[in-house]
Specification:
12 strands; 8-stranded mixed beta sheet; Rossmann fold; 17% strand; 344 residues; single chain; 4-stranded mixed beta sheet; alpha/beta; N-(1-d-carboxylethyl)-l-norvaline Dehydrogenase, domain 2
Length: 344
Amino acid sequence: MTEAVVIWGAGAIGGVIGACLRRAGHEVLFVDVVPEHVAAIRAGGLRVEGPVAEFSVGGEACLPHQMSGKHKLILLAVKAHHTEAATQALKPFLAEDGAVVSCQNGLNELVIQEIVGPRRTIGCFVNFYADYLEPGRLHYAKRGAVVVGELDGRKSERIVAIHKLMQAFDGDALLSDNIFGFLWGKAGYGAILKASALTNDTMAEFIGDPGRRDLIVALVQEILAVAEAEKVKPLGGFAGYDPEAFMRRDKAAIAASMAAMAEFNRGSAKARSGIWRDLAVRKRPTDVAAQLAPVREAARRHRLATPVADRLVALITDIEQGRAEIGPALADELALAVPERTSA
């Protein structure tokens, strides 16, 4: 890409992507709401640390109200519950022939396209592990899958260029004609990590706990049933996750996938999810409800029950509002929402 890439939201995901693109020689404009973070980037003090990479970069950076001009490519990397406000804020600075790439967790493309239009919305699936530690400091804990695609599956000239750009971040980045397959696939996998945040277990401990297996299987199958109703084929092939096994209710394949997911997370320098970090460390609301909102809305359209996902959102909300404390009892309570115990 010859023009500057705008990173809107320079936290864990956006900051790491932007820093790596900057290191690779791309012009990057970082936009963030934290003045100290913006100042650190301007001063050349955006530090990426961790087992994947250790380096510092700088570059142009500003607060949202300081933006100007029209830009052809904006990588949006805010939490799901900030998607609507952030997209409205960036819209005046998006070129008519430009595009917003949703480098986020969740099905946020559905929100973005309502604001800037489907033609200016690009799908993106990210599954690498990173954390925002403090202004100017990001932790890049583990590489993971990165996939981009047009919402309608076309292999356009611009998606080929965006794919090449993302390969400058991660050489294994993929171009897909089924980006919603990856996004819905991750909706199932991500739900496991959300549930793990109810406890103080690491992600690997939670997934590997035999006592949590029926809960995890029921939660994933509940979400994938909604994807099937939406006529989407959920895709896996990342983090040891095999959605097809859960959809077939293949006990042996599910067990193998659970073991592989536990092993993948056991090898990460990021032990607990970003949801857990928001609740336990940063003491701020999470985007669990926003991430699961499109799933639950689709379920209602198809008259499908989502009791486990519904209860998960309620329990996370209870923690956020101080009505409950993180601990194993909350995961036990979530398990009570499973309609029938699922043996896997």
